[in-house]
Amino acid sequence: MSVDGSMKFCKLLAQMIKEAKLSNIGFYTALGIKKPYFYDILSGKVNPPPPNRQIAMLKLLNPQTEQIQLFFDLAAQERNEIPADIAQILKDEKLCRKLRDGINYENLLKNGEDKDE
Predict the structure, then answer these.
(1) What pLDDT, on the 0 to 100 scale, is given for residue 3?
(2) b/e string for 36-45 if b means 16 or more Cβ within 10 A?
(3) Which of 6, 17, 53, 117 lies most in the core, judged by the most C-beta atoms within 10 Å?
(4) Which residues constitute the domain of residue 23?
């Protein structure tokens, strides 16, 4: 999913908490995080939480599939990481080997990308 930069993780999280009819206190308490850290996340002062915490958040929020994907994409973009759902799938060694079979390492090392020229 392509994220255009107009939506921020903190805004999506606030929206999802509201849609789940949870109070902020109830949410961060159930999540086991401290109030200041939670409000730093909501204000965008800190990066989104790490993947394991993202998954815990989603378990509390009961979102729709599209929201889950956007949630992971925004978090990954702001953390400069691979989305947590994709990273989880990449733990499958057979899938990694299959993906690597299609990589042109000569071009990757030469040009910094895997495109045939």
Answers:
(1) 57
(2) eebeebbeee
(3) 17
(4) 9-88
